[in-house]
Amino acid sequence: MFQGVWRKTLVAALTGALALSLAGCGGGAKQGAQNGEKKDEPVVIKFSHVVAETTPKGQAALKFKELVEQKTGGKVKVEVYPSSQLYGDKEELEALVANNVQMIAPSVTKLVGLNPSFQIVDMPFVFKNEEATLKFYDGPAGQKLLTSLDGKGLLGLAWWPNGAKHFTNSKKPLKAPADFAGLKFRTQSGGVLDAQFKALGAGSQTIPFGEVYPALQNGTVDGQENTFNNIDTQKYSEVQKYLTVSNHGRLDYVVLTNKSFWDGLPEALRTEVKAALDEATKYERELSTKLNQESFEKMKNSGKVEVYQLTDTDREAFVKAMEPVYKQYEEKIGKELLETARNAQ
Ligand code: LMR
Fold first, then answer.
1. Is 51 close to ligand 1, i.e. is its CB under 6 Å away?
2. For the chain, which domains are there?
3. pTM of the predicted model, to two decimals?
């Protein structure tokens, strides 16, 4: 009996300790308010991401930090952890749900496990251009996608578009669908991207962003698809001789926070943090176009990569070759959503 009581006491103590440590990880909003000693301590937002600091996402996260700290007079501090320093692709989402970080901005594709409709960004050639993509994100369909995460303990706060994806590989110039036969490509996640490469006669493998360079270097995969700026800042041109300017899909981000953390912020601070995010979002959108263009010029002029730009006729051949992806995925993603994306302008 004594043993039973002891065990119960121990379990209660451990549960209490765990609850406290989780609250401690939670950025301190409630902790500060509840604990007299810690009342004046700033709330900390840990912002984790996987890309370099010099990318649109990396720069916008730093801008967000600067604006938050300025607008709240230091009552909220933002710690930015770039380059998968803290967590990789899969872990960062789990860490956010556990409130071990309070903000992340994953590529939209990586939210497929939460809502398959996020794969809209992977549907080949679905958006007409950059402007149409932004209209979609900022319109009712994009906003509905953001709120679709509400029941999962997460809150979608903003869309941070990066840009169009392009193919790179180490074997040969890719000018037509037939050139893909037998090659293997890295994907971010989700079935649409596997289906896309299958439709082109290629294989695919999901690899976390932080592990892509070695996978390209040691030949685990022959190629990958990404924005100009990610290709450049990850130095893929050292191991990828061929770049095809294809604009075949999108690589954009959703800024996410932990819902309990967000709801626990004192209202006045939450308003300032949101205002900082709105400004950082504007900044990110201007910067992404500029940085991608600069990266493209840099790679083109480096002499390291052979660049091929798809012509309109080439593009038609790719659209046709990728039709099976639509047949396979239009129900899962939603016909209406696809129509809205296609018609956005
Ligand atoms: C990728 O995995 O290729 C990208 O999603 C990385 C990023 O966050 O831009």
1. yes
2. 164-251+298-343 (3.40.190.170)
3. 0.89
